Amino acid sequence: GNITVSRFMRFMDDDSDIVDVLQIMPLKRQKEILERLQQERKQFVEKLLKYEPDTAGGLMDYNFIIVNEEISFIEIRQKMEEYEKEHKKIPAVIIESKNKKIIGYIPIQKLIFPPALSGKTDIQKLKRPISLVRDIEKDFDIIKNIQTGEQILGVINENNDLAGVIKIEDLAKMSLKEATENIYGFAGVIKEEEVFDSPKIA
User: Fold this and answer.
1) Residue 17 in 3-state DSSP?
2) Are 140 and 178 in contact (CB under 8 A)?
3) Over the chain, what is the mean pLDDT?
4) Residue 59 contacts by C-beta under 8 Å, 6 or more apart in sequence?
5) CA distances from 84 to 23, 63, 92, 94, 115 (A)
6) What gap in Å lies between CA 186 and CA 175, rounded to an integer?
7) Which terminal residue of the chain, N or C, has fewer Cβ atoms less than 10 Å from its own Cβ?
8) Long-range contacts made by residues 64-67, C-beta under 8 angstroms, separation at least 24?
C-alpha cells in the first residue's frame, strides 16, 4: 500500500526518481504518499511535480551548491561536508562569477581526487564550462546536450536563476528511452504492446 511505497522512497537517492514513480500514479494516491514523506523531501518533490516529466524541470534535482569563483578548495570541501551532513548527499558544485552569473561547475572526481592546490585561483583549473537549459525545455532538445561531454547541466527558470541540475546519466536514460520508442515505432509496435508479444491477426 501507500505506507510500503513511501518507506521504499526513503531509500531513493534522487528526488527526481521519486517523481518518476509518482507521475504514473493517480493524483489522489500521489497526495497520500506525499503526506508520508519527510517534510524537506516532500517540498522538493512537490516542486518537481509541477513540471511535465519530459521537460528539464521534470528531470532536474536540487542536489547542488553554488560557490563563488574566488573561493578556496578547502572552503568548497567544508561547504560540501556541511551539505552532506544535512542532506545525506554529495552535492554538485556550481561556480558563479562576482556578478552572480553561472560560469561552470567542478567535476566530482576533481573534488575527490584533487591535484596539488595552493591558492584560490587554482579553482579555475578545476572548473569546467556548463550548459544552461530552460526548465520548460523539452527532452528532445535537452538530449542534444549529451554530446557536450559534460557531467551535469544547469536548469534555469524564467528569471534566469539556477533552479536545479540534471545529471548526464539521467540524460542518457532519457536518450535510451527515446531510442527505444523510435525502434518500437519503426517496428509498428504501439505503446501498450511489447516487441515480443504475439502478432495480432485481424
Assistant:
1) helix
2) yes
3) 78
4) 16, 53, 139, 142, 155, 166, 170, 171, 174
5) 28, 10, 11, 15, 22
6) 17
7) C
8) 64/91, 64/92, 64/93, 64/94, 64/162, 64/164, 64/165, 65/91, 65/92, 65/93, 65/94, 66/94, 66/95, 66/96, 66/102, 66/162, 67/93, 67/94, 67/95, 67/96
Predicted confidence (pLDDT) per residue in 59-83, tens digit: 888 899 999 998 888 899 999 999 9
Average pLDDT score over residue span 26-55: 84
Q: Which residues contact 174 (CB under 8 A, 6 or more apart)?
A: 59, 139, 142, 143
Q: Determine the 3-state secondary structure of 199 from DSSP.
A: coil
Terminal Cα-to-Cα distance of the chain (whole angstroms)? 40
CA distances from 146 to 52, 132, 133 (A): 20, 13, 12
Please tell me the pTM assigned to this model.
Answer: 0.71
> How far is Cα of residue 138 from the mean position of the Cα atoms in its chain?
14
